[in-house]
Specification:
By secondary structure, the protein is mainly beta. 10% of the residues lie in helices and 51% in strands. It is built from one helix and 18 strands.
Amino acid sequence: MKQLITILAAVLFCAASKAQTDSSKTADTAATVKKNQPDTIRIGNILIIKVAKINKKEVDITMGRKNKQKKENPNVSTNWGVIDLGFSNYIDNTNYGTAGSYLVNRPGFPDLGKNDFKVRTGKSINVNIWIFMQRLNLIKHHVNLKYGLGLELNNYRYKSSVSYKEGGPVPYTPNASLNSPFIFRDSVGFTKNKLAADYLTVPLMLNFVTHPGNNNSKGISLSVGISAGYLYSQRNKQRSDERGKEKNRGDYDLERFKLSYIAELGLGPVRLYGSYSPQSFYQQGLNIKPYNIGIRFSNW
C-alpha cells in the first residue's frame, strides 16, 4: 500500500511539473511584450501594464485594446428584398371631347369626364417588391451607380362606376359591338372598383452619399434616374351587392412599356421614393400620366 502511494505521488509530481513548464512556455509564446514608454509595457494588444514606484511594489494595471482597423466599403454591395409602400395617382390631361369610341356613355347620364376617373387617394396603393438592388462605387463611395430588378404593383381605386371591357357588345346600344377595348359607365354601384397595372421594372440611378458605409443611421443620400417597366398584368377588380366580387383580366389598351423618372431621398434611416411617367399609360383615348410616392424599406 505504501509503495502504491509513493508511486502515485511521484506521478502527480511529474505531471504538475510538466504542466507548469508548458504553461510557462505558452505564456511566453502567446504574449508579445512591447515597451512603448519608459514605464509602460504592452502585452499583445490587450493589456497595458504601467509600472510605477517599483521599489515600493506599487503597480497600476490599465486594460484596453488597440483601435479596430476601419472596415473598407465594398465596391459592389447588394440589397435583397427591398420593399416600397406608398400611393398611386396620376395627372389627367385628357381632352374628353375627342376620346372617341374608347369611352361609351350611358344614355340619360352625363358623358364620362375627368371626375369619373378620379381615384380615392388613401386607397390607391402602390407596392414595389425589388428582388435585388445593387450599388456600384464610382467615386470614393460618395457617387455610386444604383440598379436592380423588381415588381411594380399599382392599384387605382375609382370613386365612380366605370368599367373596362376588352371588346364585344356595347352596353345601352342594341346590336352594336366593338372589336377594341372600351370604358363605359356601369349601371351598378360598386363598393370597390379598381384598375390594377403590374410591371416588371428595372431602375437605374446615380446615387450620392454624404457618409459612405453600411451605417444608415446618419447622413443624407440622394438617388435620381430612370426606370423601364414591362406591363405583365392588367385587371379590373370590382365588388357590388348585385354581382358580388369580380376580377376581370384582359387587354384594356394600356401601354405595354412604361418609362419613368425616379428618385430616392434618404434622411438617416428614413427613405422616401417617388416616380413619374411623362407619357400616358393608355395607348389611345386618355392622356393620363401616373406617379407614385411612398416609403422605402431598405438597408441603404
